[in-house]
Amino acid sequence: ELVIDPERLDMVEVVTSTHNHTDHLDAQTLRPLRRANPGLRMVIPEANRNFVASRLTCDPEWPVGLNDGEERQVGPFTFYGVASAHEQLDRTEAGLYPYLGYVVRAGSLTVYHPGDTVLYDGMVEKLRPFEIDIALLPINGTLPERRVSGNLWGREAAWLASEVGAKLVIPCHFDMFEFNSESPDEFVAECERLGQRYHVLQNGEALHVPGP
After folding, report:
1. Peptide bond between residue 61 and the one before it cis (omega within 30 degrees of 0)
2. How far is 66 from 47, CA to CA, in rounded Å?
3. Among positive and negative, which fits the CA dihedral 31, 32, 36, 41?
4. Which pLDDT score, from 0 to 100, does residue 32 have?
5. Which of 48, 49, 103, 106 is nearest to 81 (CA)?
6. Which of 3, 88, 139, 180 is the most exposed place for a label (fewest CB within 10 A)?
7. Beta strands of 4-70 (E only): which ranges?
C-alpha cells in the first residue's frame, strides 16, 4: 500500500535512480515529487538517459548523468558513480554502466548506496578510499525461482561493509515485496561475528545521524 502521497514531500532537493527496474525508477512517485518540488534535480546512470526520459515524460536533458568513476556536484551533494553488478557488470556499446551505485558526500558525511548489486572483483578497492560513513546495502540475495536479478546475501553485505571500513551499515531491499524478501537475521549474525556496526531500520523508523 502507498505509505504517503509523494506530493506531500515538498522538501526534496535531489532524487536518484540507480537503474531502470520499476522499484528504482517509479514514475508514480517521481512525477508527483517533481510537481511538489519545482527545483528538483535527478541523478541517473548516463546509460539510461533515454529510458528515464520516456518513463518520466521529461526533457532528456533534465537528469544529471553519471558513469563509473565520474563525479558531479548536484546542489549541496557531491555524487561519485560506482558500477554495480545486477547480476553481472553489464556495459552498453558506448562503455556505460546501466546499473550504477552512488557514493554521496553531504558536508562531512559520506553515504554509499549501490542500488542493486552482487559482489564483483575490484569492488572493495573502488570503495575503500571513500572512507564511507554509512553503507545502505541490499540483502535479499539471489534465488532463480524468483525470476528476478539477484543481490547481496545478508552475510555478503556484512562482509562488504566490514571490508570497505563502513562505520555503519543499514540493510535494505527486504520487507518490500513478498516474493522477493529475506530475513535480516543472517545479516545481523554476520555483522555481530565481524564486529561490524549495523542498524536494522523498522518500518517508519528514522535514523538521526549526529554531525561531526
Report:
1. no
2. 8
3. negative
4. 97
5. 103
6. 3
7. 14-16, 41-45, 64-66
Asked whether the beta carbons of 42 and 15 are under 8 A apart, the reply is: yes
Reported as a pLDDT band with limits 50, 70 and 90, residue 182 is confident
Among residues 107, 112, 119, 205, which one has the least CA distance to residue 156? 119
Cell of 169: 551499515
Q: Where are the alpha helices (DSSP H) in the chain?
A: 27-36, 49-56, 123-127, 154-164, 185-194
For residues 138 and 207, what is the distance between their CA atoms, to the nearest angstrom?
17
What letter represents residue 170's amino acid? I
Mean pLDDT of 39-50: 98
What pTM value is reported for the model? 0.92
Would you state the cell numbers that stand for residue 139, as one nine-digit string? 540483502
Amino acid identity for residue 167 in this structure: K
Distance CA 186, CA 84 (A): 22
The DSSP 8-state label assigned to residue 145 in this structure reads G
CA distance 107 to 29: 27
